[in-house]
Amino acid sequence: MSHHRSDCLVSVPLLLLILSFLLPSFFDTAVCYGKIGNNLPRPADVVAFYGQRNIRQMRLYDPDQEVLTALRGSNFELLLDVPNSDLQRIATHYLEADTWVRNNVRKYTKGVRFRYLSVGNEVQVMQNIEGAVSDLGIKVSTAIDTRSLRGVPPSIGSFTEIFQIFIAPVIDFLVSKKSPLLVNIDTYFIYANNMRDVSLEYALLTSYKNVVNDGSNIYRNLFVALLDTIYAALEELSGGAVNIVVSEST
């Protein structure tokens, strides 16, 4: 198994938060906060719920002002997404990025611990946002998923040829800023789409059998196998110094 250190954010319904603790103990675990649904609890109640269960890291998919206000003083670390609808405008000029950061980040920095900002995979947007937050110590990155990968076993992992066109300049940016790559690893959906070749135990980290042998590395769960596949793909594009933050998992 790779010796890189990864953080993990687990996307699960609030009533199933306990599933996040099935992940290996070497991960820092957080939970994504989605707001699509009916009869949702108040943001203040959700923040309190996280605190009661000692969940100290959160991903928020858009800069919801009510949620950001509720997070003040919570001491949670936050991964905040820049909505896709804002990306084109931010890419046009640094001042647009500065305005976005001022309204959605700086306004809350006295009470909210922003750790990462996730933006689209265009380097110009990433550069503009990074320039607007460089004095705040917030890392700027982008989130990818495992559909961009090819190669089994993990040691020969790489990104698909088409995806390399987009991700190569992003990796160069991440290396230059010492920022991590955000990755969504949805092992259950991989199982659901390929039950013939992927066992439920392998997908849910409960297998006690060796499933993949890769030289001296032995894999009993798909999650770690995918992590090492991504690290191999990064190394192929001169991104061996880039760490991974798992920004979502199901």
Automatic annotation (TrEMBL):
Organism taxonomic ancestry: Eukaryota, Viridiplantae, Streptophyta, Embryophyta, Tracheophyta
Keyword line: Glycosidase, Hydrolase, Signal
Reaction equation(s) it catalyzes: Hydrolysis of (1->3)-beta-D-glucosidic linkages in (1->3)-beta-D-glucans
Enzyme Commission number(s) of this protein: 3.2.1.39
Signal peptide as annotated in the record: 1-32
Enzyme class, broadest EC rank: hydrolase
Family: Belongs to the glycosyl hydrolase 17 family.
Alphabetized PANTHER family for the sequence: GLUCAN ENDO-1,3-BETA-GLUCOSIDASE BG1-RELATED-RELATED (PTHR32227)
Record InterPro entries: GH (IPR017853), Glyco_hydro_17 (IPR000490), Glyco_hydro_17_plant (IPR044965)
Gene Ontology MF term list: glucan endo-1,3-beta-D-glucosidase activity
Protein name: glucan endo-1,3-beta-D-glucosidase
Top-level taxon of the source organism: Eukaryota
A Pfam family it matches: Glyco_hydro_17
Organism: Brassica cretica (Mustard)
Gene Ontology biological-process annotations: carbohydrate metabolic process
